[in-house]
Description:
Blueprint: H1 2-29, H2 32-37, H3 41-57, H4 62-81, H5 88-105, H6 110-126, H7 128-149, H8 154-166, H9 175-189, H10 204-213
Helix pairs in contact: 3-4, 4-5, 4-6, 5-6, 6-7, 8-9, 8-10, 9-10
Amino acid sequence: MKKTLFLSSMLIISTTIFGQNEKLIKAIEVKLVAIDTTQNLSDLIDISNYFERICKAEEKEWLPLYYKAFSHIKIGFTYNTMGKLDLIDAQADEAEKYLDKLEAIKKPNSETFCLRKMVASMRIVADPYSRFPTYAPVSDAAIATAKELNPENPRVYLLLALDKYNIPEQFGGSKTEARELLKVAIEKFNVFKQETKAGPEWGLAQAQYFHSLIK
């Protein structure tokens, strides 16, 4: 009798947890395409606020924190395209805050190190000449760790390609190398499978776009 009650209790608990996780997954999936493709600042701020609400409701889950950090990164780079360099650091600060919270509940992985690399890159674009010597090694170390943790992660090769694409040749940039890295990224995107439902899927459209620019 006690064994039956115990098994019934465990079934109820497992069902409740599963239900909560499924609800969380569905809430995240609603914004997965938007957070990948949206470039509009107002929409990105709405997405950031959306994930902030999920973070508050699901304090022990790492994915909402990941996407909240990623939304601030996208906002920061959008400010860069708008020429509002003075607003970038605040977004980098917010991204780091949520990455720190994430890493307090989950061991850092390839995906989180990709975001760490992007935050360091944000710091550089806010003030390239004075910050490159400080943050370039931070950026390089983060992406090297991301690659070491998962060499099949296509976002690693996308980010390496974007560095090669955007950095002047005299400082190590190369459109030819960027094209080859983008080709690798696209190939890996086509076969990549996330271990976690609603895990990071962003980057394929960006890889295809920049690959099309390089003749």
